Amino acid sequence: MKNCTILIVVTCIAIFSFNKKGFCQIDPDKILQKNKKVPKVLLVGSWHFDYPGLDANVTKEKDRINIYSEERQKELAKLINYIAAFKPTKIMLESGAITGYLTHNLKEWKAGKAKLYASERSQIGIRLMDKLKLDTVYGVDDGALLMDLLYDTSFKSTPYIDFITKRHYFGGSDSTHSRYKKFYDYQDKYELNNTLLESFKYLNSDKVLNRYFGAYIAGGQFTSIEDEGPDALSMFWMNRNLRIFRNIQRIKTTGDDRILILFGAGHIAILKWLFECSPEYQVVKFGDVLKSK
Fold first, then answer.
1. Which of 17-21, 43-47, 57-61 has the lowest mean pLDDT?
2. What 3-state DSSP class applies to 284?
3. Among 3, 37, 47, 132, which one has the highest count of C-beta atoms within 10 angstroms of its own C-beta?
4. pLDDT of residue 158
5. Is 262 helix (H, G, I), strand (E, B) or coil?
6. 262 phi and psi angles, rounded to 5 deg
7. How far is CA 143 from CA 32, 231, 269, in A?
8. Residue 153 has pLDDT above 80, yes or no
């Protein structure tokens, strides 16, 4: 019995750590994962290469990159090679569930009948699918509860829903959002004057991603006198990303899968938080791709 007790203590020292009172502190995943292998996840935030003008920041025409230019296509090849080093087995995109229009465009492009769409979904996601010889990509985007409540006839809209929907604007004129505007302008110029890989490494750094989400919780958009700011944010932006996360969960995976998730950068901080909190996945940071195995 004594030898058994010693063995348990030695094992605990080797695997865990102790607090000052001598109580064994464990890594929670020793219990929650039970040494089970979980899928690795690489989250890649991007700006929209086709500049649809639907985000808070609308890039000035003079600051937009031309993804079709010879120089950018060479940079794109290097970016794709960098991401491919992660060896994704599944690629998930900011698209509806039906992605046949993307794969059809790929076939037309390879046959010399059409240009590949300018969007990052095609220029990065679809090209990676082709490069890695995967047979599909997954569209995992979703809408938000707030929009359902407003427009879906199966729900009964209320004056409060109408009010917080109108209030949940993008951007603002307060001092915080004025500073954000300067930051977005700087970032547009950074992307214009640096390579795609350099821009993606900057955009996907922890602090930049976190500050992207910070735009939603700082300034007048969020800081309402009553609860309309938090209510709108939780029912719109937070809800949309929770639904996206649930869509990803619905796709069958194994512990050997390596999941690439390519979305607009504004989504990534929330998705990254969800994946890091979940014991069902292991997050690989963009800057650590070459270190991942």
1. 17-21
2. strand
3. 47
4. 87
5. strand
6. -110, 115
7. 31, 16, 18
8. yes
Cα(153)–Cα(186) distance, integer angstroms: 43
275 contacts 41 by C-beta, under 8 angstroms: yes
Residue pLDDT, tens place only, 242-278: 999 999 999 999 999 999 999 999 999 999 999 999 9
**14 pLDDT higher than 60:** no
Q: What is the CA radius of gyration of the chain?
A: 22
Two structure tokens written together for 209: 């991603």
CA distances to 61, 114, 206 from 193, rounded to whole Å, are 14, 29, 22
Sheet containing 90-93: give its strands across: 138-139, 90-93, 258-264, 40-46, 282-284
User: What's the whole-number mean pLDDT along residues 40-58?
Assistant: 90
pLDDT(72) > 70: yes
Q: How far apart are CA 291 and CA 46, in angstroms?
A: 21
* CA-wise closest residue to 94 among 134, 133, 47: 47
Residue pair 235/147 in contact (Cβ under 8 Å)? The answer is no
Contact (CB, 8 A) for 281 and 254: no
Q: Are 98 and 91 in contact (CB under 8 A)?
A: no
Range 151-158 average pLDDT: 84
70-84 and 196-203 helices cross at what angle (nearest 10)?
50
In which residue are the tokens 């960098």 written?
82
C-alpha span between 16 and 24 (Å, rounded)? 7
